[in-house]
């Protein structure tokens, strides 16, 4: 709700222009994102830290699988290898224990599915409907907040036998809640921006970079235990991230060159035509004109 109110104030100050999106689309999208957050939190609550980290790692290959099947997106073998190195590195650095239980496993699977679908839709909706990350977040935030506000207290009551509204909120607690909400605004905005401008897979890669940074800052600032295994895992993960970035850049350059080649060849052919005059040239131009007209009509 703080995210929506912040964006509403920004919109009133003309910092961005609101763009309406189909109500059904934005409602289902917002609810799906809210459910995804709920399942991720429940997965963390019912599983060990190690298994939760495995859940986060599984989001990347599942996203690649969904985009390949449903969006026909192609991932080169080099990019897949870089992602494999990244996952291995993060796994070595962060996974400590794997305690399995049936409920936790089901919740983790649901968290993976809803998170992947939600992030793919974040990218797809922005491109298909030609809306910016800010416009989409502004439209969907109320529905995301609504589903969490309705379901959160009920689920908490069932699991902990405590009412979240019965807690005595001290000024210090309220101050940290407000700080958390303000930070969440930037997190939500950056999430939609990164996914919209790049891809869900790239966003997940950045998320694992965050994991490496958390481990590093934990050791540097909080003096958390740090072993050779952590260092090895982080180095492998960072190397995988570097390869992923390099291979993605190379693929983008190839796509741009492939898109420029047809236009360049057309210009070259046009420039190489001899300057001839006569009836035959005139007839040839007319035929070319008719051919271009037919081609244009067939495209339409």
pLDDT < 50 stretches: 272-282, 290-300
> Cα distance, first to last residue?
45 Å
Number of strands: 0
How is the main sheet built? none
- Proportion of β residues? under 5%
Specify the oligomeric state: single chain
Alpha-beta classification: mainly alpha
Write down the secondary-structure element order: HHHHHHHHHH
Instruction: Work out the helicity level.
Output: over 70%
What report would you give on this structure?
- With about 300 residues, this protein is mainly α.
- The protein has one domain (about 1-160, about 170-250).
- It contains ten helices and no strands.
- The longest helix is centred in the C-terminal third of the chain and has 44 residues, at about 230-270.
- The protein starts with a helix and ends with a helix.
TL;DR of this structure?
The protein has ten helices and no strands. With 300 residues, the chain is mostly helical.
Question: What descriptors fit this protein?
Answer:
81% helix, mainly alpha, disordered C terminus, 10 helices, UDP-xylose transporter 1 isoform F, globular, 300 residues, Sugar_P_trans_dom
List the helices and strands and how they pair.
Layout (H helix, E strand, L loop, with lengths): L1 H11 L10 H24 L2 H22 L6 H18 L7 H27 L4 H28 L10 H27 L2 H22 L6 H44 L7 H21 L1
């Amino acid at each position: 709700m703080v995210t929506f109110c912040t964006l509403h104030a920004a919109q009133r100050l003309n910092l961005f222009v609101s763009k309406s999106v189909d109500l059904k689309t934005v409602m289902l999208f917002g609810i799906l994102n809210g459910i995804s957050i709920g399942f991720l939190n429940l997965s963390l609550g019912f599983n060990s830290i190690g298994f939760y980290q495995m859940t986060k790692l599984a989001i990347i290959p599942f996203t690649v699988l969904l985009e390949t099947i449903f969006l026909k997106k192609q991932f080169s073998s080099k990019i897949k290898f870089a992602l494999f190195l990244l996952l291995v590195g993060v796994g070595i650095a962060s996974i400590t224990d794997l305690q399995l239980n049936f409920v936790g496993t089901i919740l983790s699977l649901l968290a993976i599915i809803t998170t992947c679908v939600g992030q793919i839709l974040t990218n797809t909706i922005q491109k298909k409907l030609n809306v910016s990350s800010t416009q989409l977040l502004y439209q969907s935030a109320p529905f995301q907040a609504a589903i969490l506000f309705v379901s959160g207290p009920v689920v908490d009551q069932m699991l902990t036998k405590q009412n979240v509204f019965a807690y005595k909120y001290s000024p210090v607690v309220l101050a940290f809640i407000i700080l958390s909400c303000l930070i969440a605004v930037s997190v939500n905005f950056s999430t939609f921006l990164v996914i919209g401008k790049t891809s869900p897979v790239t966003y997940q890669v950045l998320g694992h970079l965050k994991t490496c940074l958390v481990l590093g800052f934990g050791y540097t600032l909080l003096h958390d235990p740090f072993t050779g295994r952590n260092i090895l895992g982080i180095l492998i993960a960072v190397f995988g991230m570097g390869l992923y970035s390099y291979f993605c850049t190379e693929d983008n350059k190839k796509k741009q060159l492939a898109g420029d080649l047809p236009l360049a060849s057309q210009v070259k052919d046009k420039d190489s035509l001899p300057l001839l005059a006569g009836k035959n040239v005139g007839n040839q131009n007319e035929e070319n004109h008719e051919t271009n007209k037919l081609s244009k009509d067939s495209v339409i």
